[in-house]
Amino acid sequence: MTRRWFGSVRSRATLAATLVVAVALLAAGAAVLLSLRSDLTGQAESEAASAARAVAVELSDGRPYDKLTGLDEDDRPVQIVDERGRVVAASEDLERVTGTGADTARPGDPGGRAGGDADDDADDSDDANGSDGPDDDPAPRGEVDSDTDFSTGTATIDGTTADYRFAAVEVEFEDRGKFTVYAGAPLAAERSAVGTATTAMLIGFPLLLAVVAGATWLVTRRALSPVEGIRREMAAITASEDLARRVPVPATHDEVARLALTTNETLAALESSVERQRRFVADASHELRSPIASLRTQLEVGAAHAELLDLDGAVTDTVRLQTLAADLLLLARLDAGERPGDARFDLGALAREHAEGRAGVTVTADEVPVAGSRAQVGRVLTNLLDNARRHARSAVTVGVRAEGEWAVVAVADDGDGVPEADRERIFERFVRLDEARSRDDGGAGLGLAIARDVAVRHGGTLTVGRAPAGGALFELRLPRAR
């Protein structure tokens, strides 16, 4: 069942369309999520950098830690770390933090490098901020670094832990060294937006794929319905062997309609070929029956009465049988598509050879080389000369000439000619315009049919027209050999 399902064009088209759409949706979804995350992360970095730089500017002006406005924000974690990694100031409600490089969250937290006794912390505070007394000299200004570094971490404020994007800005004093200000911006909006978009995609993409699969299934079913009709009709034709039937042609004017038309044309050609073969077999049987019956009669009479045996008649009937068998064999070889070969020979010399010894035949032949089967072309010339001799009153003329890319053989007689309505019919097999005379002369109506078939196989033509003397003019055209 699975192999049968996958063997269907409709199922394969549906599967292919669904896979293509799925890949496109996955790529588009990944691009959207990456873009959304990048934009929201960029916004968080911008907020964090702005907050960190504001604190760094205040710190560079020599403002004491307890006067820094950035440390008073309840929802934004801020740390100031000295060059030894100790936290010297932090937001009031900051409890824990990761991603800033410090081991502790606030100054004086135990277990970290910022820990120590109260005197050391007081000294560090004084070193970093100067004295608060009004009589003291103002603290020297620091230099704020223009670069901003970013990192991702977590922070716990008032017992709530969340993800943050931290910006780090350095402030350097000549006498107190370098300090780094860390300020964080929450990533909750980025996490929420990405999560919402991912959920929407996980729900929407399967639904969309189901719609695509269903639509493709229905569309391909409708598109392939005429093909199934063609298949059923062809199966019926095969079962009934009725080549007169035709497949239905849909009114869509598309590839399927053209397929149906081509199928009908093929059926018509096949029907014509089969009918032609049937007529050929029937006509051949009819033609063979007459000389065989005559020969049998003569042999039976000779067997009963030897003195009455007509040997000349028996020989004549035997020759007729031999000639007819040879014609039928040649036609079978031509119908089978036998290639004529590519031997070069002089058509003029061949015409003179076949006209030699024939009474009343005049030959005017130039030297014109052609390529093909010398024996088959010679058979054409023999058939044309025999036909002309049977219908001529007194004279037959043969001319061979070159005419452009063609070698032309013209065989004319001074007989009654061929009526215009019959000039194509005479090239059909077993056709005789003068039935009685052709039979008496031993003709089976195959000579001209063989002549045209050979001409066509050699890439040429054979036509009939009216000769100057009023009889028939047969023109054989073959390509000249290069």
Keywords:
Heat Shock Protein 90, 5-stranded mixed sheet, Helix Hairpins, 3 domains
Protein described:
Helix content is 50%, strand content 19%. By secondary structure, it is of the alpha+beta class. The protein has three domains: 34-192, no CATH class; 255-335, Orthogonal Bundle (Helix Hairpins); 343-479, Heat Shock Protein 90 (2-Layer Sandwich), CATH 3.30.565. The strands form three sheets. Strands 1, 2, 3, 4, 5, 6 and 7 form a seven-stranded antiparallel sheet that branches. Strand 6 and strand 7 form a beta hairpin. The radius of gyration is 53 Å and the shape is rod-shaped.
Describe the protein's topology:
Layout: H1 2-6, H2 9-60, E1 78-82, E2 87-90, E3 94-97, H3 118-129, E4 143-144, E5 149-157, E6 160-173, E7 177-186, H4 188-240, H5 255-304, H6 311-335, E8 343-346, H7 347-355, E9 361-365, E10 369-372, H8 374-391, E11 396-403, E12 406-413, H9 435-440, H10 447-457, E13 461-466, E14 472-479
Parallel strand pairs: 9-11
Antiparallel strand pairs: 1-2, 1-7, 3-5, 4-6, 5-6, 6-7, 8-10, 11-12, 12-14, 13-14
Strand residue percentage: 15-25%
Distance between the termini: 61 Å
User: What is the strand tally?
Assistant: 14
Regions with little confidence, pLDDT below 50 for 5+ residues: 111-136, 435-440
Number of helical regions:
10
Nutshell version of this structure?
By secondary structure, the chain is of the alpha+beta class.
